[in-house]
Amino acid sequence: MCSGWIKDMITKELDRLESEAIYIMREVASEAEKPVMLYSIGKDSSVMLRLAEKAFYPEPIPFPLMHIDTGWKFKEMIAFRDRIAQKHNLNMIVYTNEDGVRRGLNPFDHGAAYTDIMKTEALKQALNKYGFTAAFGGGRRDEEKSRAKERIFSFRNEYHAWDPRNQRPELWDLYNTNIAQGESIRVFPLSNWTERDIWMYIQKEGIDVVPLYFAKERPVVYRNGNIIMVDDERMRLLPGEHVVTKKIRFRTLGCYPLTGGVESEAETIDAVVAETFAAADSERTSRIIDGDGGVFSMENRKKEGYF
Amino acid sequence: MQDVLRIMTCGSVDDGKSTLIGHLLYDAKLIFTDQEKALELESRLAGSDGNLDYSLLLDGLSSEREQGITIDVAYRYFATPKRRFIVADTPGHEEYTRNMAVGASNSDLAILLIDANKGVSTQTKRHLRICSLMGIEEFVFAVNKMDEVGYQRKVYDEICTDIDELLADIQTGSKLSIPLSALKGDNITEKSSHMPWYAGPALLEYLESVRIGDYGEQGFIMPVQRVSRAEGDFRGLQGQITSGSIQVGESVSIYPGEKTATVKSIISDKKHVASASAGMAVSVEIAEDVDVSRGHVLAINANIKEANMFEAYLLWMDEKALKEGRSYIIKLASQQKPVSVMKLKYRVNIENGRQEYSRSLSKNELGCVDFICPGSLVMDSFDRHRALGRFILIDRLTNMTAGCGVIRHILRRGDNLSHQEQDVTRKMRQEALGQQARTIWFTGLSGSGKSQLANGLEKYLASTGRHTMLLDGDNIRLGINKDLGFNEYDRTENIRRVAEIAKLMNDAGLIVITAFISPFSEDREMARTIIGDELFIEVYVSTPIEECEKRDVKGLYQKARRGEIPNFTGIGSPYEAPDNPDIIMDTTNAVVNESIEVLAQKIESLLNVE
Question: Please, what are the domains in chain B?
C-alpha cells in the first residue's frame, strides 16, 4: 500500500504521538486528585485504552474508566464494552441519566434536548457524583474546526462550562494542572492525532475495535442524505421510508439513530486504512449532531459542557 | 530527514497569515471535499466578493470571527508525500502575544509574514524576539502581498535589508526570505512567473526540505514524572527521556542529591528493553533502594545542577504585573515549587532589543529576572538542556499560567563576589563565647505576644550568660529599613534584610532573636535559606486572631477594621501558619512569666545541639 520509507516515517510519527499521549496521561495521574478516563467505546477510546495500559504497565491503569450510556447506543457497542472491560479487568463505571430515562427522552422526539440531557447533562452529573477532577477524552484537533483551537488541557468552572477567553496557555510540554475547589479539567491526550493516525495505530497494534467499523450487510434507511442503521425495534420510520439492506460501515459511533454510516466494501482493518487514506469526506459529516444549530453548533455545545 | 515539521505563522492583524496557510492547504489539494463545500458556503456567509476567502479555513471561534481577529492558536495537520506538517496558526494582535508564545514553544520553524506595503513592523520585531526566546532557530520571512506592490524587486530587496538588520542580535539556524502573494498564490506551492528575479524555492518546496538542527544536548536526562508500584516489589520510575540514551546495567545519577544507582530494567511498550533513547516514554527500575519521587531527575554525564538562584528571560502573560519580591509557583520539568522574584534586572525593549530599567513587567513584556527558590531546583541553562532550562510560572491565587521563561545562567550566592576566607571562623567565635549561634525566629499575628516572649527570652538567655541580640520589627523599620514601605516587595525585602543581618550576627557567634509578623511561609523559607537550616529555630506564636484583636495593644486592629490600614495581616492580608515549626506557643490564657519559662526550657534543649 505504501512504500518502505513512508511506512518508516509513519511509524516514527506514531511513536512520537504515543510518547506524547503517555507523557500527558502520566502528568495527570501524578498531579490530578481524582482522574477518570471517559470511554465512549469508539476507536479513539480504544486507542486511549491501549495507551493507558502502556503508560502504566506493569501497574494496572490507576484510574477508572467511565461510559456515559444514553440507552440508544448500538447493541454491538454495549456488548463490546462489556467484553473489553472483562478481558482487561477494567474498573468501568457506566452512568445513565435516569431522570432523562424516566422522562422518556429519545432522539426522535427531543432532538437537541435529548443530546443535552442524555449526554452533556449526564456527563456533568456523573463527574459531580464521583468527584472527578480530571477527565480524559478522545477528542482530536483534526475532527472539526473549533476543536483545532482546543487545548490539550481544557479548564471547566464549577458548572463544567468552558470559557474560551479564560483558558491557559500551553507552553512546551509544561502543563499547568493546578485548579481550585470545584473546578475540573478535560484532558485530550490524542489532540495531535489525525483520523489516519488512529487507524494506522489500530492496525499496527492490532487493537480490537467494535465490528461496526467494518463493512457488512446491515438493515438501513436513507434519511436526509444520511444512512441510518435500524439497530432495534425502537427505530421510527418516516412516511415513505423503508428498510433496505446495504453493505455499510461507520467512521464514528454514537447513538444509532443519530449516526450516519457510509457505503463501503472495507471488511478488514487493512481495507479501512486504505479507504481512510483516500478519504474525501472528513469524518464528522457522518455525525448528525454537529449539523444542528448552524456553523458554530459544536462550539456552543462545548460552552455548555459537551465534550 | 525529520518525520514531522512543526511550523508556526506569525504576523500583524492584516498580514494574511490565515490566508497563507489556507492557500497552502488548498493548493496542495489537502482539503477534504466537504470542507471545500463548507468553505464556499461560509465565504458567501462572510459576504466575500466571490473570491474564495482562504482564511476562513482556519478561523474557528465565533467570538473572534465577530471581532475579525484570531485570538487563539489553531493547529492544522497535513502531509505531502515528502513530509508531515503541524501548523500552528497564531494571532498577530498585540494583546494576544501569549498565544504566539504558545505556538512558538510547540514549533521548530517560524514563518514571519511581512506586508510588502508596510515593511518590517514593530510586531515583526516582537514576534521574532518571542520566537527566539522560546527556542526557535529556523525562520522564513514571507514578504506577502507582492501583488499589491507590482511584484517589484526593489521593494523586496529593501525589506530584506531591514530583516538582516533585525537578525543582527538574534541566534538563527537556517533562514530564508521569500516574496509571495498568499491571496494570488505566488511562490506558495509553485514558483511564480510574476517574480522571475527571485531565485529561491517556493514556500512548500522549502518547507519539505529544510533540516532542523539538533540542539547538541550532552548526556542522558529523564525527569521522573511518576513512581509506579506494582506486584512483586516493582518500582518503576516513569518519565520521558529528554536527551541521550540509557542502557540496562548503566550507572545513573539521581538529582537532587546526586545519588548513584544502577539501571536494573527498562520497560517500554509493555516490554523489557535493553536500552532507550530521547523521546521515548519509559519506566526505569533501579537496583538500589534510593529514595526517588516525582520531580527527581535521572542523568548520566549531563552535568546538570541543583541550585536555588537563577537568571532567566521571562515573557509575562498575566494581567497582574510581575514585581520584585512577588512569589509564584514554578513548574520546571516535573518539579513544582515556590519561587520569588529576587531582582528584575531589566526589561527588553521589544522594538530595538535595548535593556531598560523597570520595577515591573506587564502583560506581553519581556525581561531578564533573577529568581530565588526557598528549596532547590534541578536545572540547567536552556541552551545546554532545553527540558531543564524552561519553565512556567503559576499565580498562587488564580492558578493561571502567568509567565514563561528560559534559564540563562544559574547563580550561586556571591558568584561575582568571592567570599573572603577569614582565618577567624564562626566556630572559633562560638567557642570563645561558649555557645552555639542560632537565630530564633518568632512568627505570629500582631498582638499575639511575639515581642513580649522574645524580650522575656532574651532576658532569660542573658541571665544564663548567653550573648544575644534581639531584632524587633519597629526598631529595624525605624533604622536600617526606614526606606521600605508595606507593599509586597518591600515586605519581602524587609524580611530578607533582617535575615541577612541575623546571618552576620550568627557568624559573629551571637544568638539572634527576631520578632516579625513574617506572615508568608515563602518569606520565612527565604530567611531559613539565608541563615542556614541548621541555625534556624522557628517559633510560631499561635494565639488566635480573636484574642489578638481583643488585646489590640496598638489599636491597629480597630484601624484595620475601619479600612485605614490596607493589607493588615489577618484582616486584609492572609497569615500563613508554619507547617512544621520547632516550637508552638499560644498565649491566650497564659501568664507571661510562665510562658517564658516554658519557652526557655524548650529553647535550651535546642540550643545545645552541635
Answer: 4-209 (3.40.50.300), 220-300 (2.40.30.10), 305-410 (2.40.30.10), 426-607 (3.40.50.300)
